[in-house]
From TrEMBL:
Signal listed as a keyword: yes
Pfam families named in the record: TMEM220
Annotated signal sequence range: 1-25
Transmembrane segments: 32-49, 61-78, 139-157
UniProt source species: Punica granatum (Pomegranate)
Protein name (record): Transmembrane protein 220 isoform X1
InterPro entries in UniProt: TMEM220
Keywords per UniProt: Membrane, Signal, Transmembrane, Transmembrane helix
């Protein structure tokens, strides 16, 4: 792989900060033992340079986070479907299952893009640009979370 671009490095750093914060927020969660390793692995993988000589360890860690993220995503989807909590397409961040579905989905997409970026260079340059633009798409949570938090906060103030 060629050297990572500034966009890839910036997106990886921002996602590492988001996953690090998410890992720290899991300490009071009843099933922290599932979510803390997921977010911690995703944070470490995003902090690592994809072209580092010890890249095989990071690729294994990224694969582990990808598999764990997929497992937890499907666990939350099944739990939501079984109990009818919020619905698959719900964006109501006040519901735990929606937050967990969104978080595990972010980990899965980030690990997939990280694995694509750290793999051998693809002969088609358009595929390589897709990975960079995909990492750029990960900026969405930084705009989405504050808006949803603000709306949720205003709703909670009205209840008081």
């Amino acid at each position: 792989m060629t050297a990572p671009t500034k966009l890839l490095r910036l997106c990886s750093l921002l996602m590492a900060l988001l996953f690090g914060y998410s890992a720290s927020a899991q300490l009071d969660d009843p099933d922290w033992y599932l979510w803390l390793p997921l977010y911690a692995c995703a944070c470490i993988v995003n902090l690592a340079n994809p072209t580092a000589p010890d890249g095989s360890l990071m690729r294994k860690m990224a694969k582990l986070a990808l598999v764990l993220g997929l497992f937890l995503f499907f666990k939350v989807v099944v739990e939501d479907g079984k109990h009818g909590i919020a619905g698959f397409w719900s964006l109501d961040m006040r519901e735990r299952v929606v937050r967990e579905k969104f978080g595990s989905g972010l980990v899965v997409s980030s690990m997939f893009l990280h694995l694509q970026a750290s793999s051998s260079p693809h002969p088609n340059r358009r595929v390589a640009r897709f990975v960079e633009y995909g990492k750029g798409f990960e900026f969405v949570p930084f705009f989405f979370y504050p808006i949803v938090s603000l709306v949720s906060w205003r709703i909670m103030i009205r209840w008081i």
